[in-house]
Design brief:
Layout (H helix, E strand, L loop, with lengths): L2 E8 L4 E2 L3 E4 L11 E6 L9 E6 L4 E5 L5 E7 L2 E3 L32 E6 L6 E2 L5 E3 L12 E7 L5 E10 L5 E10 L5 E10 L5 E11 L9 E3 L2 E6 L2 H4 L18 E7 L6 E7 L6 E7 L5 E7 L8 E7 L6 H6 L4 E3 L4 E11 L2 H15 L5 E2 L14
Parallel strand pairs: 18-26
Antiparallel strand pairs: 1-2, 1-12, 3-4, 4-5, 5-6, 6-7, 7-8, 9-16, 10-11, 12-13, 13-14, 14-15, 15-25, 16-23, 16-24, 17-20, 18-19, 19-22, 20-21, 21-25, 22-23
């Protein structure tokens, strides 16, 4: 039977499927207990949000086409990937004031496991000299709905995937197209996101992209730890610098505690492949984020050690740039230029580790990447990376 595909959204041709459920029993010869479900949420800030759930017997993933093809959550056996946000979503973009004058309206919709930041900008809010907002926090792409979505199942290979297209365009301004594929493979407790960004304009365009990949409890807990293959590291600001001796370990949630952020250049295989690991206090469960540093050369670790009611969460964030204001990143050559019609592709894999042995194997992979590389660690922000270190 090979590969089967279902188009559930095509805004240009008036195609929209309100609900769909596909199980292995409907797919003769399926190599795994495949499950696909599409539905629309109703009520509250979720009203009108479409979600797609895909599973392969090893992992279940929830994709949100309404929110830029982000990933709300994932589960693999006892491992829950995602976090508990004070904003209970997934939130419809209509309720997210991205261009709120504070520049922080993006936070009204933030509760995903994986959310893209970009595409025109992806860092801190940037303001004009008159105080008006130029670029909002983390950009627009996460709050733009997909225009085309398909679900595919290959019964021979066991691959289950969702593909989608999202446009971030404006007359006289940026004209970018995100084409994404989110896939599961038989026998693997992981999902892979493969993105291509294309400049649709007749003139050169610019882009930034950061994958904000977020983990909370029960994986994140006091004494949980992150393991990274470090080539170079620096705190973002004085707050992070004051805690640099515990940058890789997590404490309890403390009311009002400021977020801490660290910037990295990671070591990798010669091909550019690298791996980062987060595991719980007892090293029985964990999550890995794998990517290629040739595609995504910058890495940010975000720690928000506040009580769970205020968002106890950490972010492992591969990117093309650091999440400073856009003008700072552009001045340092980290804003990508795309010629008319040019594309760039990026891939990120998120893995669930469901036992002590799997965590230890992942830790060994990370430490192997560190072999022969002496980390360059700055205890203070550096002007090359951090806007707060200027002057």
């Amino acid at each position: 039977m090979g590969k089967q595909t279902w188009t559930i959204l095509d805004s240009h041709h008036g195609v929209y499927v309100d609900s769909l459920t596909i199980a292995s029993g409907e797919l003769p010869g399926a190599a795994a207990p495949i499950r696909v479900a599409k539905r629309r949420l109703h009520g509250g800030p979720c009203d009108g949000v479409d979600i797609i759930e895909i599973g392969n017997g090893e992992m279940n993933v929830t994709v949100v086409p309404t929110r830029g093809m982000g990933i709300w959550k994932a589960e693999s056996g006892p491992v829950r990937l995602g976090w508990t946000s004070p904003t209970r979503g997934p939130v419809h973009p209509a309720f997210v004031p991205v261009f709120d004058p504070s520049g922080l309206g993006w936070l009204d919709g933030f509760d995903e496991l994986l959310v893209r930041c970009g595409l025109e900008s992806n860092g801190a809010p940037e303001f004009r000299e008159d105080g008006s907002l130029r670029y909002p926090l983390h950009g627009r792409i996460a709050n733009l709905p997909a225009e085309h979505v398909q679900i595919s199942v290959d019964v021979e290979t066991g691959e289950v995937s969702v593909t989608g297209r999202v446009r971030e365009t404006r007359l006289f301004f940026t004209k970018l197209l995100l084409t994404t594929k989110i896939s599961l493979l038989t026998g693997r407790s992981e999902f892979t996101v493969t993105d291509t960004v294309t400049n649709l304009a007749g003139v050169p365009g610019e882009m930034e992209l950061l994958y904000h990949i977020n983990f909370g409890s029960p994986l994140l807990e006091p004494q949980a730890r992150v393991v990274l293959p470090i080539r170079k590291m620096a705190p973002r600001d004085a707050v992070a610098a004051a805690e640099i001796d515990r940058w890789d370990i997590y404490g309890p949630g403390i009311p009002g505690k400021p977020e801490t952020v660290y910037f990295f250049e990671l070591s990798s295989q010669p091909s550019g492949e690298t791996l980062t690991l987060l595991h719980n206090a007892e090293s029985t469960h964990g999550a890995g984020v794998a990517f290629n540093v040739h595609e995504l050369p910058c890495f940010t670790l975000w720690k928000n050690e506040q009580p769970e009611c205020d968002g106890y969460v950490t972010g492992l964030e591969p990117a093309v740039n650091f999440p400073n204001v856009r003008s700072f990143e552009k001045a340092r050559g980290r804003v990508v230029t795309l010629e008319p019609g040019q594309s760039r592709s990026f891939s990120v894999t998120v893995r669930a580790y469901r036992s002590s042995s799997e965590v230890e194997t992942a830790r060994a992979e990370v430490l192997e990447l560190q072999q022969g590389v002496l980390p360059q660690v700055s205890r203070n922000p550096i002007s090359e990376w951090s806007a707060g270190a200027e002057g």
